Amino acid sequence: MKYNSENMKINLFYKIFNSITNLKSYTNFLKETLGKAILYLFLISLIFGILGSMRGVINSNLEITDFKNVYNQKLRNFQIKDGEFKIDKKMPIIISNRSNDYYLIDTSGKTVQSALNKYDRGILILKDKLIEKIDKYNIQVIYFNSFGSNIINQDTINEYLPLLRMIPPFITLGIIIGYFIGGLLIALIVSIFVQIFYRRINIDFESLYKISIYSLTAPLFLDTVLSVFKIDIPYWTFLYAIITLIYVVIALKYAEKNNQLAG
User: Fold this and answer.
1) How far apart are CA 127 and CA 103, in angstroms?
2) How far is CA 96 from CA 4, 33, 91, 197, 213, in A?
3) Residue of 98, 115, 91 whose CA lies nearest to 63
4) pTM of the entire structure?
5) In the 8-state DSSP scheme, what is residue 109?
6) What band does 162 get if pLDDT is binned at 50, 70 and 90?
7) How far apart are CA 176 and CA 52, in angstroms?
Protein backbone atom coordinates (compact mmCIF):
# COMPACT_ATOMS: atom_id res chain seq x y z
CA MET A 1 0.00 0.00 0.00
CA LYS A 2 2.86 2.37 0.88
CA TYR A 3 4.51 1.62 -2.45
CA ASN A 4 1.29 2.32 -4.34
CA SER A 5 0.87 5.62 -2.51
CA GLU A 6 4.44 6.74 -3.28
CA ASN A 7 4.07 5.57 -6.88
CA MET A 8 0.87 7.58 -7.24
CA LYS A 9 2.63 10.73 -5.97
CA ILE A 10 5.51 10.26 -8.40
CA ASN A 11 3.09 9.60 -11.25
CA LEU A 12 1.05 12.72 -10.41
CA PHE A 13 4.04 15.08 -10.32
CA TYR A 14 5.38 13.43 -13.46
CA LYS A 15 2.10 14.24 -15.18
CA ILE A 16 2.09 17.83 -13.90
CA PHE A 17 5.65 18.40 -15.13
CA ASN A 18 5.06 16.81 -18.53
CA SER A 19 1.69 18.48 -19.04
CA ILE A 20 3.48 21.83 -18.84
CA THR A 21 6.85 21.11 -20.46
CA ASN A 22 6.49 18.06 -22.72
CA LEU A 23 3.57 18.21 -25.12
CA LYS A 24 4.70 14.99 -26.78
CA SER A 25 3.66 13.17 -23.59
CA TYR A 26 0.01 13.94 -24.34
CA THR A 27 -0.01 10.91 -26.61
CA ASN A 28 0.38 8.83 -23.44
CA PHE A 29 -2.44 10.69 -21.70
CA LEU A 30 -4.76 9.68 -24.54
CA LYS A 31 -4.37 6.03 -23.48
CA GLU A 32 -5.89 6.77 -20.07
CA THR A 33 -9.58 6.83 -19.24
CA LEU A 34 -11.61 10.02 -18.95
CA GLY A 35 -12.16 9.18 -15.29
CA LYS A 36 -8.41 9.30 -14.65
CA ALA A 37 -8.19 12.64 -16.44
CA ILE A 38 -10.94 14.09 -14.23
CA LEU A 39 -9.24 12.63 -11.13
CA TYR A 40 -6.01 14.30 -12.26
CA LEU A 41 -7.82 17.65 -12.57
CA PHE A 42 -9.26 17.21 -9.08
CA LEU A 43 -5.83 16.43 -7.59
CA ILE A 44 -4.08 19.40 -9.21
CA SER A 45 -7.02 21.62 -8.21
CA LEU A 46 -6.46 20.42 -4.65
CA ILE A 47 -2.70 21.05 -4.76
CA PHE A 48 -2.81 24.39 -6.58
CA GLY A 49 -5.90 25.46 -4.65
CA ILE A 50 -4.13 25.02 -1.31
CA LEU A 51 -1.04 26.85 -2.61
CA GLY A 52 -3.06 29.59 -4.29
CA SER A 53 -5.16 30.28 -1.21
CA MET A 54 -2.17 30.67 1.15
CA ARG A 55 -1.93 34.44 0.75
CA GLY A 56 -5.68 34.89 1.20
CA VAL A 57 -5.70 32.62 4.26
CA ILE A 58 -2.77 34.45 5.86
CA ASN A 59 -4.38 37.84 5.18
CA SER A 60 -7.72 36.64 6.54
CA ASN A 61 -6.11 35.37 9.74
CA LEU A 62 -4.32 38.69 10.19
CA GLU A 63 -7.55 40.60 9.61
CA ILE A 64 -9.47 38.40 12.04
CA THR A 65 -6.78 38.98 14.67
CA ASP A 66 -6.87 42.73 13.99
CA PHE A 67 -10.64 42.80 14.22
CA LYS A 68 -10.71 40.91 17.51
CA ASN A 69 -8.05 43.14 19.02
CA VAL A 70 -9.76 46.34 17.93
CA TYR A 71 -13.17 44.98 18.84
CA ASN A 72 -12.05 44.13 22.37
CA GLN A 73 -10.17 47.40 22.84
CA LYS A 74 -12.15 50.03 20.93
CA LEU A 75 -15.57 48.80 19.85
CA ARG A 76 -17.33 48.23 23.12
CA ASN A 77 -20.89 49.51 23.42
CA PHE A 78 -21.45 50.27 19.74
CA GLN A 79 -24.91 50.09 18.24
CA ILE A 80 -26.54 50.12 14.82
CA LYS A 81 -29.99 51.58 15.31
CA ASP A 82 -32.39 53.65 13.20
CA GLY A 83 -30.07 53.37 10.19
CA GLU A 84 -27.00 54.76 11.97
CA PHE A 85 -23.78 53.38 13.44
CA LYS A 86 -23.33 54.82 16.93
CA ILE A 87 -20.34 54.60 19.24
CA ASP A 88 -19.06 56.95 21.89
CA LYS A 89 -15.41 57.12 20.78
CA LYS A 90 -13.06 59.66 19.26
CA MET A 91 -13.09 59.43 15.46
CA PRO A 92 -11.60 58.01 13.34
CA ILE A 93 -11.01 54.48 14.69
CA ILE A 94 -8.32 52.74 12.63
CA ILE A 95 -8.79 48.99 12.65
CA SER A 96 -6.02 48.16 10.18
CA ASN A 97 -3.74 50.28 8.02
CA ARG A 98 -1.40 47.92 6.21
CA SER A 99 0.17 48.73 2.85
CA ASN A 100 -2.60 47.03 0.87
CA ASP A 101 -5.51 47.00 3.33
CA TYR A 102 -7.40 49.78 5.09
CA TYR A 103 -10.13 49.27 7.70
CA LEU A 104 -11.55 52.31 9.42
CA ILE A 105 -14.59 53.61 11.31
CA ASP A 106 -15.56 57.28 11.08
CA THR A 107 -19.01 58.56 11.94
CA SER A 108 -17.91 62.20 11.92
CA GLY A 109 -18.61 62.69 8.21
CA LYS A 110 -14.99 63.68 7.45
CA THR A 111 -14.02 60.41 5.72
CA VAL A 112 -15.40 59.59 2.26
CA GLN A 113 -15.29 56.56 -0.01
CA SER A 114 -12.28 57.86 -1.99
CA ALA A 115 -10.13 57.14 1.09
CA LEU A 116 -10.05 53.53 -0.16
CA ASN A 117 -8.71 54.45 -3.62
CA LYS A 118 -5.02 53.86 -2.92
CA TYR A 119 -5.59 50.49 -1.22
CA ASP A 120 -6.18 47.09 -2.81
CA ARG A 121 -9.06 46.44 -0.46
CA GLY A 122 -10.59 47.66 2.74
CA ILE A 123 -13.70 48.57 4.72
CA LEU A 124 -15.06 51.95 5.76
CA ILE A 125 -17.77 52.07 8.39
CA LEU A 126 -19.42 55.47 8.17
CA LYS A 127 -22.39 56.85 10.03
CA ASP A 128 -25.00 55.51 7.61
CA LYS A 129 -23.28 52.74 5.67
CA LEU A 130 -20.50 50.18 5.36
CA ILE A 131 -18.34 50.36 2.23
CA GLU A 132 -16.29 47.28 1.34
CA LYS A 133 -13.66 47.39 -1.38
CA ILE A 134 -13.26 43.76 -2.44
CA ASP A 135 -10.75 44.58 -5.17
CA LYS A 136 -10.16 47.48 -7.55
CA TYR A 137 -13.11 46.41 -9.70
CA ASN A 138 -15.69 45.56 -7.01
CA ILE A 139 -17.09 47.77 -4.25
CA GLN A 140 -20.05 46.77 -2.11
CA VAL A 141 -22.13 49.21 -0.07
CA ILE A 142 -24.45 48.20 2.78
CA TYR A 143 -26.76 50.90 4.10
CA PHE A 144 -27.61 50.54 7.77
CA ASN A 145 -31.23 51.56 7.20
CA SER A 146 -31.61 48.24 5.33
CA PHE A 147 -31.63 46.54 8.76
CA GLY A 148 -34.99 48.18 9.45
CA SER A 149 -35.97 48.21 13.10
CA ASN A 150 -33.41 45.54 14.05
CA ILE A 151 -30.76 46.60 16.55
CA ILE A 152 -27.20 45.29 16.17
CA ASN A 153 -24.89 45.65 19.14
CA GLN A 154 -22.05 43.98 21.01
CA ASP A 155 -24.18 41.00 22.04
CA THR A 156 -25.14 40.37 18.40
CA ILE A 157 -21.50 40.36 17.28
CA ASN A 158 -20.43 38.12 20.19
CA GLU A 159 -22.75 35.40 18.90
CA TYR A 160 -20.94 35.31 15.55
CA LEU A 161 -17.30 35.89 16.57
CA PRO A 162 -16.49 32.13 16.84
CA LEU A 163 -17.59 31.72 13.20
CA LEU A 164 -14.82 34.02 11.96
CA ARG A 165 -12.34 31.16 12.22
CA MET A 166 -14.36 29.34 9.57
CA ILE A 167 -13.48 31.96 6.95
CA PRO A 168 -9.91 30.80 6.04
CA PRO A 169 -10.88 27.13 5.40
CA PHE A 170 -13.79 28.31 3.24
CA ILE A 171 -11.39 30.49 1.21
CA THR A 172 -9.27 27.42 0.44
CA LEU A 173 -12.30 25.25 -0.26
CA GLY A 174 -13.78 27.89 -2.56
CA ILE A 175 -10.57 28.15 -4.61
CA ILE A 176 -10.27 24.36 -4.92
CA ILE A 177 -13.88 24.04 -6.10
CA GLY A 178 -13.43 27.00 -8.44
CA TYR A 179 -10.33 25.46 -10.00
CA PHE A 180 -12.03 22.07 -10.45
CA ILE A 181 -15.47 23.14 -11.71
CA GLY A 182 -13.99 26.01 -13.71
CA GLY A 183 -11.46 23.62 -15.23
CA LEU A 184 -14.16 21.16 -16.30
CA LEU A 185 -16.13 23.98 -17.95
CA ILE A 186 -13.14 25.58 -19.72
CA ALA A 187 -11.98 22.17 -20.96
CA LEU A 188 -15.49 21.55 -22.29
CA ILE A 189 -15.65 24.93 -24.05
CA VAL A 190 -12.19 24.49 -25.56
CA SER A 191 -13.06 20.95 -26.71
CA ILE A 192 -16.25 22.13 -28.42
CA PHE A 193 -14.39 25.04 -30.03
CA VAL A 194 -11.64 22.75 -31.39
CA GLN A 195 -14.13 20.20 -32.66
CA ILE A 196 -16.04 22.89 -34.56
CA PHE A 197 -13.16 24.97 -35.94
CA TYR A 198 -10.31 22.46 -36.21
CA ARG A 199 -12.01 19.74 -38.20
CA ARG A 200 -8.99 18.62 -40.17
CA ILE A 201 -7.92 16.50 -37.17
CA ASN A 202 -10.03 13.40 -36.75
CA ILE A 203 -10.53 12.76 -33.03
CA ASP A 204 -13.43 11.59 -30.89
CA PHE A 205 -14.81 14.05 -28.33
CA GLU A 206 -13.80 12.02 -25.26
CA SER A 207 -10.14 11.97 -26.32
CA LEU A 208 -10.30 15.68 -27.12
CA TYR A 209 -11.78 16.40 -23.70
CA LYS A 210 -8.98 14.41 -22.03
CA ILE A 211 -6.34 16.46 -23.85
CA SER A 212 -8.15 19.67 -22.86
CA ILE A 213 -8.13 18.64 -19.19
CA TYR A 214 -4.38 18.00 -19.18
CA SER A 215 -3.86 21.25 -21.08
CA LEU A 216 -5.31 23.12 -18.10
CA THR A 217 -2.17 22.39 -16.06
CA ALA A 218 -0.06 25.31 -17.33
CA PRO A 219 -2.70 28.05 -16.95
CA LEU A 220 -3.76 26.61 -13.60
CA PHE A 221 -0.14 26.75 -12.42
CA LEU A 222 0.17 30.34 -13.68
CA ASP A 223 -3.06 31.28 -11.94
CA THR A 224 -1.66 29.94 -8.68
CA VAL A 225 1.54 31.98 -9.09
CA LEU A 226 -0.52 35.10 -9.82
CA SER A 227 -2.63 34.49 -6.71
CA VAL A 228 0.38 33.92 -4.44
CA PHE A 229 2.13 37.09 -5.63
CA LYS A 230 -1.13 39.02 -5.95
CA ILE A 231 -0.56 39.91 -9.60
CA ASP A 232 -3.61 41.11 -11.50
CA ILE A 233 -3.74 40.58 -15.29
CA PRO A 234 -6.68 42.09 -17.22
CA TYR A 235 -8.88 39.54 -19.02
CA TRP A 236 -7.06 36.71 -17.29
CA THR A 237 -9.97 34.26 -17.67
CA PHE A 238 -9.88 34.79 -21.45
CA LEU A 239 -6.09 34.36 -21.52
CA TYR A 240 -6.49 31.23 -19.35
CA ALA A 241 -8.72 29.69 -22.02
CA ILE A 242 -6.41 30.80 -24.84
CA ILE A 243 -3.37 29.16 -23.19
CA THR A 244 -5.40 25.97 -22.77
CA LEU A 245 -6.43 26.12 -26.44
CA ILE A 246 -2.82 26.58 -27.60
CA TYR A 247 -1.73 23.54 -25.58
CA VAL A 248 -4.59 21.48 -27.03
CA VAL A 249 -3.80 22.38 -30.64
CA ILE A 250 -0.06 21.67 -30.27
CA ALA A 251 -0.74 18.41 -28.41
CA LEU A 252 -3.12 17.33 -31.17
CA LYS A 253 -0.44 17.93 -33.80
CA TYR A 254 2.01 15.75 -31.91
CA ALA A 255 -0.63 13.04 -31.47
CA GLU A 256 -1.51 13.19 -35.16
CA LYS A 257 2.14 12.73 -36.14
CA ASN A 258 2.31 9.61 -33.95
CA ASN A 259 -0.99 8.25 -35.27
CA GLN A 260 -2.49 8.30 -31.75
CA LEU A 261 -5.82 9.89 -32.65
CA ALA A 262 -9.05 7.92 -32.60
CA GLY A 263 -11.86 9.12 -34.81
Assistant:
1) 15
2) 49, 51, 14, 52, 42
3) 98
4) 0.78
5) S
6) confident
7) 9
